[in-house]
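Students often ask why we bother encoding 3D structure as a string. The short answer is that it lets us treat folding as translation between two languages. Here is a chain of 372 residues written in the first language.
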Amino acid sequence: MFHKALWMRNQKQGKWIVGLFWLGSLYLLPFNYYQAAVTILEQQKHTKEIVLQHPDYHYYYQYYFNSGASGFQTILLIALAALLIGWERNNQSIDLLFSMPFKRRDIFLSKWLFGLVHITGIHIVTYGLMYLVKKTTIHDSHQDFTDFSIFFLVSFVTLAALYTFCLFVGTIAGNIVSQAILSFIFLYLPIGLYGLVSSMIVLHISSNQDSLEAFYKRTHSIQQGFETISLPVPLQSLRIEYNDNPENKSINGIDFGYNPERSESMIFNRVLSTVAIAIAYTLLSLIMGIKLYKKTPNEANGKILLYRKLAKLFIPSVVICCSLLGGQILAGAFSPSKPPLFVFYIATIGVGIITHIILKKLMNTKLSLGSK
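And here it is in the second language, the structure alphabet:
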């Protein structure tokens, strides 16, 4: 599976994105963690000066961490996967690659292994550096690093699955642009569909506040289910908070979003389901990616999709989603509070017709960006 020539090719193609991935991750995780410790220590010193004048004043340790780095890493991994597969379709270098004495299976696995090595490496390095920062700063006497261990576990399996899934999308997309856009859309598709459908239902029910609250309460568990199967969402909603103020009702530790009913069993179940879904994404994407990459129809390179049969499902699906989204946006612009239903349906139909016309033209258009 490992071929030095393929590794060097992937390194040449993706070195700038990989470099940015490493530098950005190191800055957003261990460096920011250290900066937070420095800031807290300065605040503590300043508090001692205030206490001399106001003896009743108290200082309490506070630290808040959210997985903001995951959004940055998600974008770069989508870009890396699109560059390693989609760009080769645009500049026609994939024809030369397939003429080399390598199995297509090995070519695909080399791209997957290239990304996985860097994902693994950055997690090992950032975890080690953050642990070192924790043990040598004020964080050590206030935090339990188990929470960060859970974060890094969720982050690793999620980003590995995300990258594998984006490579799989590259086996059905015909160019770098469509691969990047489709990867992003498919990653957030479950929660996006839930949002579209729930928003449409809200338009059809009473605008009474009690009715709306009852609806959101009944569908809360459904929403959480769609969030869990939307690969990047659980990781991006994960946060860690420590607050030593006894008057503050927040619970120290890790959580997925602001949840007043947070419990250890709830967190464990959410972590377990997130990890299981990420592993399932990885295995299915890798198996399907290898299978489809072996059958890549190079004559369709440059188009939105490589397989004509997928267009029969792709076009109506995109038209429905865009029409619902466009209808809600336009209807909301007409009347932000409660737009009339006839406005929503007119806008939905209009956006659907326009989307269908544009898609029909784009499906047969080849993007020749970077072709030699």
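Translate back mentally: The chain has a mean pLDDT of 86. Keep this in mind for the problem set.
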